[in-house]
Every structure is written in C-alpha cells, then in structure tokens.
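Tokens for Aquaporin Z. Go.
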Amino acid sequence: MLARKLVTEAIGTFFLVLTVGCTVILSSDASKGIIPPLAIGSALMVMVYAGGHISGGHYNPAVTLAATVRGRHPVSELIPYWIAQILGGLLAAAVAMFLTAGVAVAAPAPPDVAKALVAEFLFTFALAFVVLNSATAKATSGNSFYGLAIGFTVLTGAFAVGSISGGAFNPAVALGAMAMNLIDRPSVWIHVVADLAGGFVAGLAFLYLHPDDK
C-alpha cells in the first residue's frame, strides 16, 4: 500500500516539476509571466485528480506536513513521502534539461530575502489550507472540485508573487528548479524553510478552525 502511494507521489511531482521546467525555459520573454502559471496550475490540478484517491495527491512536502499536523496523514509516512516527492522532482529536472538542451537560460537573480520568505510562506499556507479544507474536511467530503481549487491556488500564487520569490510554494519544486538553474541556488533555503513553515501553520490553523473534525 505504501509503495503505491510513493510511486503516485513521485509521478505527480515529476509531471509538476517537468511542467515547471519546460514552460519556464521554453516560454518567450513576453509570455513567461502568463504561460508557466497557467500550465503549472493545470498540471497540479490534473495530477491531484489522477492520484488523490491513491496517495492524497500531495506532490509537495509542505502539503504532506500540513496533512500530518492535521491528523490525516500517518507520521510514519512523512519522510517516505518527502523522499518520493524530491526524487520525482529531481528526475523531472533531469528530463526537462534534456528536452530543452541548447536553450539559453539566464542566470537567476537572488531574491530579496525578507520579501521572498513572506511571499513563499503566505502562498504555501494558502495552498496547504485549501488542500486541507477542500480535500480532507468532513464538510467537503466527496466533492469534485478539490483538484480545481488546489491548482488554482498555485496559479493565483504564481501570478501574485512569482516575480518576488519564484513562486515555488513547494520544496520539491524548489529543489527541481534549483537543479535546472531557474532559481538562485544559494537562496533555495528560503523555499524550504518558508514552505514547510507555511504547511505547518496551515495544519495548526485547520485544527483550530475545525476542532471537531478529527
């Protein structure tokens, strides 16, 4: 059972990061602010629908942490999920670099640390909060909109703060983007710290707002 979950998480994260790499690298300068967010949000949406019934469709260490804090994910499966997600993301980065070989990629500029930390924290919180409320809450159990809600949250965040932080909202995506030289490598810690903090706080917020939803 766990093996099937981990394979699903690796596949979903793979296609999410592959979409990030290919759309960001291959988009023209004029469309970089439009095409990648649309494609990335859509990729997450379809992968959530594809694998949500098997693994929960997290594809994001921060979301897995939020689900664990909320009590809907076993603590014993937290690290295995993280490993599967990161491996899926790094494999996707390798494939994306192969597919886009020969395309020049400008060196990413280091972000403003304070602004990037706040941006990544807020929209990772929003993403994890939406996941918990649309895909794990009793009040929304059995709905058919959760994948759309989750994908659109990432799309919204990418449009809103992508130019500030890179718009990862996901440590596995950040590591894959770092491997593809799409984000400033010394700054990748911003995404890991802020995103995991956002997921953790989202889990706590859910517990506070839904004390009877165990």
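The chain has a mean pLDDT of 96.
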